[in-house]
C-alpha cells in the first residue's frame, strides 16, 4: 500500500485507480501544461506541440498511461468524501473546521514545476477529498479508501447541524424581530 512521507498508509495500492482525468487535460484531449508552462519543460512542450498538443495518456488506445506523464496531476473537484460519500456543507462567514479534507494518494517529489529527470520514476500529485473521520481512519488504521463505508454518526450529526443553521439563515425575520431577540 502507498505510504505518506511520515510512513502512514494513504489507503490505496494504486493511486491512479482514483483518477478520472489529468488537471492539465482540456476537453478536446490536449495538454494545457505544454502551452501554459512550456518554459518549465521545453523538451516536453516541443514534443506535445509536434503532436498537435495531443495528450498521449488521454487516448484509451494511446501509448501512455497517466503515470507515464511527467507532469500529471489530478485533484478531485467534487466536494464529497470518496470513501463514505459525505458531502461538504460550509457555512458562509464561519470559522468552523471543514467537514472534508484533501487527502494525498501520491506525493510529488519536489516542486510541481520541476521537470522529471531521466531515469526517475514520476511522482505525481493525486488528491481526493475525505471527511475528517474517514481521513483519520485511513491514516491511523488499516482502513482503505475503497472500503464500503457509511458516514460516521458524528460526521452525519456535524453535517446536519450545518444544514440546520443554513436553513435558519434562509428564514425571514424582520429587523425588529431580530433586534428584539437580542435584548
Structural class: alpha+beta
- Helical fraction: 25-40%
Radius of gyration: 21 Å
Mass-distribution shape: extended
Strand coverage percent: 5-15%
Please report the total strand number as a whole number. Answer: 3
Overall mean confidence score, pLDDT: 83
Helices and strands, in order, run as HHEEEHHH
Tally of alpha and pi helices: 5
Flag low-confidence runs. 110-120
Strand line-up of the largest beta sheet: 1-3-2
Largest sheet: 3 strands, mixed
**What is the CA-CA span between the terminal residues?**
58 Å
Q: How would you characterize the overall build of this protein?
A:
- The structure is a single chain.
- The chain is of the alpha+beta class.
- The protein has a domain at 15-22 and 72-182.
- It has helices spanning 33-36, 42-50, 132-140, 153-170, 175-182, and strands at 73-75, 100-106, 125-131.
- Strands 1-3-2 form a three-stranded mixed sheet.
- The radius of gyration is 21 Å and the shape is extended.
Overview features:
183 residues, alpha+beta, 3-stranded mixed sheet, 5 helices, 26% helix, extended
SSE map:
Layout: H1 33-36, H2 42-50, E1 73-75, E2 100-106, E3 125-131, H3 132-140, H4 153-170, H5 175-182
Parallel strand pairs: 1-3
Antiparallel strand pairs: 2-3
Would you summarize the structure shown here?
The chain is α+β, with helices and mostly antiparallel strands and 183 residues long. Helices cover 26% and strands 9% of the residues.
